[in-house]
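User: Design a sequence. Structure:
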């Protein structure tokens, strides 16, 4: 499945308490479970919280599922970027 980076503009997310982040995660997971029950292939891998933004890594059959999840969960998908390739320190090796 394709991988996507989703930038979400969420004011004050960087200063959110752990309980608020837990609640947001639970809300997202609930929507993902409902979508899975509908045979929609979408999965949240992880997210980075930075300032007033989160950068979420998802895999999904297509970008439309990313937008559907955003609408249903209430978390904006401000920018959705398909990942074309991945590199890491091992990429430097021959």
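Assistant: Done.
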């Amino acid at each position: 499945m394709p991988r996507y980076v989703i930038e979400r503009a969420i004011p004050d997310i960087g200063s959110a308490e752990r309980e608020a982040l837990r609640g947001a995660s639970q809300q997202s997971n609930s929507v993902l479970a409902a979508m899975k029950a509908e045979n929609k292939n979408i999965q949240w891998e992880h997210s980075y919280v930075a300032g007033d933004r989160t950068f979420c890594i998802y895999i999904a059959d297509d970008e439309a599922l990313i937008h559907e999840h955003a609408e249903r969960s209430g978390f904006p998908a401000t920018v959705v970027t398909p990942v074309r390739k991945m590199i890491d320190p091992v990429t430097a090796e021959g």
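The chain has two helices and four strands. The chain has one domain: 3-92.
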